[in-house]
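[PROTEIN RECORD]
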Amino acid sequence: MAIKIHWGYVKLGVLTALVMFLFAFASKRNGDRKISEPQIHFLGDNNLYITEENVSNLLIQNEKGLSEMTKETLDLNSLEFALNSNPLIKSAQVYLDVNGLLTADVEQKMPIARVQDQTSYYVDDKGGFMPLSTNYTARVPFVVGHIEKNNLSNVFKIAQKVYNDTFLKKHVVEIHQNEDQKISLKLRQQNFSVYLGDLNQLDKKVSNLKVFYKKALKENTLHDYNKINLQFDNQVVCTKN
């Protein structure tokens, strides 16, 4: 009895096997593709507190370097963790395209004040610690006096106000905090100190300072004072030289 061969099924089976072979071959070849030198993209501020070279060094997983690694052996999660663990980086994403091009999108932390202590450091725009950079120095107010690295909330509040206010950002060069967390400010090219006291009704105190400064500037009397006290409600108490 003759066996009837269904050539259509045979062709389908051969085609399926061929497709699976090609897919496996392509996958193996893609997994063995060498990783390119990383492309570093910095987001936001152009002031580089951490350089492309610094980021590239953080992306090296072992002694062979990224250029000797393949897509199959690369762990993107560990690379992102390495970048996000750096105290100068706010956030980072690392991704790889089909051609083996490794790219890192990096957003740096933004300093808004610089604590001048035994060990100087920045306060960033989220109120956290940020180390000084050897690559770039931010032009932000100094913070002096009684400062605790693990208790920056009060300093952050006034530093954030200074950073976001056009007048204060232009004029304030120093923030002083005493042991009771009372705040004084030093203004650019002025000899007097501005005593805020606590930071309650801060907006009102800053508004009073602006009114005083504008009036004294117009009358050319700014250099007549050594202290401007804003701690009292709706008052500006000035002490003359």
Remarks:
- The mean pLDDT is 84.
- The first strand starts at residue 39 and ends at 43.
